[in-house]
């Protein structure tokens, strides 16, 4: 009895998966990753592509300060033009 119920439930799950299958989950994942790629830098280590709460590197306040100054200077030059 229990075996028959499990088998029937598995068939229902398989049917549900077929009906609700996304077209191509891999391509959607790649599109989302490309769209959401972070373009800034980490305020902990100064490296590009991630933020401080994701950082696994050691702190590098000198590099962070240099990048912040360069960013600020670039903003000033953009406003003057």
Distance between the termini: 79 Å
Question: Helicity, in percent?
Answer: 55-70%
Biggest sheet, in brief? none
Q: What is the number of domains?
A: 2
Pick out the low-confidence regions.
none
The gyration radius over C-alpha positions equals 25 Å
Secondary-structure element order, N to C: HHH
Mean pLDDT: 81
Number of strand elements: 0
How does the overall form come out from the CA principal axes? elongated
Number of helices: 3
Task: Please report which band the strand proportion falls in: under 5%, 5-15%, 15-25%, 25-35%, 35-45% or over 45%.
Answer: under 5%
Write the layout of secondary structure elements.
Elements: H1 2-19, H2 25-35, H3 61-80
Describe this structure in words.
There is one protein chain. This protein is mainly alpha-helical and 81 residues long. It folds into two domains: 1-37; 39-81, no CATH class. The protein has three helices and no strands. The chain has helices spanning 2-19, 25-35, 61-80. It is elongated, with a radius of gyration of 25 Å.
